[in-house]
Specification:
Elements: H1 2-10, H2 12-29, H3 31-34, H4 66-102, H5 104-118, H6 122-133, H7 137-164, H8 167-174, H9 179-215, H10 227-234, H11 243-270
Amino acid sequence: MEDFILFIKKNKLFAFLCILVLILALMCLFVPYIAPNDPLKTNMANSLQGRSSQFPLGADNLGRCLLSRLLYGAVTSLKLTFCLVIIVFIVGTTVGTLAGYFGGIADTIIMRLSDIFLAFPSIIFAIAIVGILGASSINTVMALLIVDWVKYARVSKSLVISIRKKDYIKAAKMGGAKEYQIIFKYILPNIIPSLVVMATMDLGTMMLQISSLSFLGLGAQPPTPEWGNMLNEGKDYMQTVPGLMIYPGVGIFVTVMIFNLLGDSMRDILDPNTEY
């Protein structure tokens, strides 16, 4: 307990950011009890209504509660972001680890394939893929997975190459350890911390990518509340009712900042001697 308290005192920013992430998680978990209204219920009589006891942040062009849509939009945006990061993390780390450890033709093919993906701006490539697959949340995640796994594969491969030459790996092989035992017992535990920091810092970037595609009409489709989609719906009323864009925009900005700062803090804690 004393060690935990000492850790919190030494890393106050990290502790504060973890509390903010916990608040976001609890908000998403209990959003049905927090939201004052049904986010999908329309009533043209309340169209573009200002703040009131019924609508604390006002209503949108279809008379839907803006606060309720903002809260449910956070759930959608965070759910898509975390799903994307987890899938990209697993796919990229698996491919990079196998390529780095075994090498050979498979490594060459994977790296040349990654070079092809890196030759195009990721968001443009994702737009093209979603355009082919069709606009939806699932297709957005699939498109971003296709363009984002490359970074994790290349980083994990470089980490594996540096580790597989260590003496303890050679000792494990001489001791009769199987290939999968070496990977899971000696290699993955040494590369996962760096990749977790990388994934945490990518949460903000991937949320921006998802919101960007939704803003272009390629992500979550109406009437699903999602911050990027809400920005798209509110752009026509920017001058008359700026809150329709300001509120989801602030939500994206604050959330991205929290994840970016959290990633920086984790990096400093895990490797305080690294200079960037």
